[in-house]
Fold each of these.
Amino acid sequence: MKKILVTGGLGFIGSHTVVELQNAGFDVVIIDDLSNSSIEVLDNIVEITGKKPDFHQLDLRIKSDVKEFFNTTKIDGIIHFAAFKAVGESVQKPLEYYENNIGSLVYLLQEMRDRNFDNFIFSSSCTVYGQADELPITENAPVKTAESPYGNTKQVGEEIIKEACNAHNFNAIALRYFNPVGAHDSIKIGELPLGVPQNLIPFVTQTAAGIREELSIFGDDYPTEDGTAVRDYIHVVDLAKAHIAALQRLLDKKNKANFEFFNVGTGKGSSVLEVVKSFEKVADKKLNYKIVGRREGDITAAYADTTLASKELNWKTEKTLDEALESAWKWQQSQS
Ligand code: WQD
């Protein structure tokens, strides 16, 4: 049975990916520093799959600890989620973002080089495109100057991986996520935002749950159908399955270059108001919201061209926005 290391494996996307890895027959070992996740998620994973992943609480910024881990653990692949990911916070704390997101990446790649193991899946983001000139966004769209240190850590991260693959002949795939939302059908794992949610969906569900007074919709003067910004909201379980497809591609040596990247979205754009309406329908509940000014750094629209991912990964999304919002709402209700 192949053993896969999942860094950040107790986080939102990481935990859903651990479940799908176990469902696909992989042995999983998790590294997580618990800075943006909780240890209870480990038990929740076991409740879903009946299998307990090995778990190491470890700070990947500490090179000696990373080395020590690999002295005792042999693996067949890495899916690397562990990173700070709050766009706004990254503007206030750029050095912490580079130290954590880039430092830990370099230490992991050095171990891959020194111990001759292979198959690296990198959690990247559609933010590398900024506001793309053409929609839907294909993998040929130019990478633009990052709008935040967070976005830059994804761009620089991809460059580092590409150069390491060329120099040391290992194989990697970067998945450029659009907007992950929702929760596992079991409602035992989901998104656990720390403090006031920055992202739309957790703010919507917390407003509906009465935790937040009302949702502020950041701008209705965008050049879109209803004036609100458009994004590609992908169910987190569909996103998790894309990681299994990418990993299998490397394990089966079907990759066509030693570094590849794929856009991972539904291919459908939804405006903020469309999301609100969809939520009100699935939750059968009126949502309290007001329109305010645009948020600094937001783009008008982003949604994926899914052609390459569906062809090369033999993967496509199966769940709808309604299903994602319904699972997000059930998850929120389970938290109170
Ligand atoms: C979505 C839309 C907001 C909150 C970010 C990161 C990206 C990725 C996903 C990590 C926008 C609007 C939001 C609110 C609102 N993260 N909104 N009121 O900004 O598309 O992407 O999260 O990889 O890297 O940049 O996601 O959920 O913050 O915003 O009106 O209270 O909802 O303006 O149009 P975003 P988001």
Amino acid sequence: MSAQTHIPRMTAPKITARKGGEPIVCLTAYDAPTAAILDEHCDLILVGDSVGMVVHGLTTTVGVTLDMMIMHGQAVMRGSNTALVVVDLPFGSYEDSVETAFKSASRVMMETGCQAVKIESGSYAAETISYLVERGIPVMSHVGLRPQSMNVLGGFRARGRKQEVADEIVENAIAAAEAGSFAVVVEGTSVEIAEKATKAVDIPTIGIGASAGCDGQILVTPDMLGQFDRVPKFVKKFADMKGLIEGAAKDYAAQVKDRSFPGEANTYKFTKK
Ligand code: KIV
């Protein structure tokens, strides 16, 4: 019998302990095979509500439901073994009361087996964060550009380039940290504000469209894989997934049409025995 080394999953407290240390590597995933590939390279995998836009073809994240998040969370948990898996609480599932937030978050944790949830945290969120954390649910917060509020903000543009908004972003990060978040995503703001927020809190900041000075980075995986033509300025395409899929689909179509596929290697021979 061969001895298998079991590498335990990353935990929320271990992520918090990385403040100011080795940068924390995070990506999003929504399905088991992708999670299995990302797992060994990521400290944290986020099942983001970006799933609504990059998988389901919605124009915003507002239409994403708790059931969708749970289904994708289950898939990511099946595919991963070592990364901390965090599942987004979608719009409408946590804002109106701490009780609603607990019901949604506990359902997500119990039905997926994930280790934490993320909420987009404006100034209203501190009470919710401490309520969840006190009841055993690690919370990652999300400040700056908050996609669930895009109808109020007027779009997906970067925030925090004006003093008023900049102060609000840093204040929201501080409030999220003081309420007990184990980490905070800082999205779509200036380098200066992201760095100010990073200095102001004792939990890791995870930047997206923010600054290399954050304690970690996250990107939406289909964006960084190059699956879409149009991506925000802050996304670097690390691959050309769209080109790969297009090339493969074109070759497949040509080979089906000229009957070179399926070839001998892809077919079964009838045997009498
Ligand atoms: O939903 C998501 O993918 C996110 C990341 C952009 C941080 O919240």
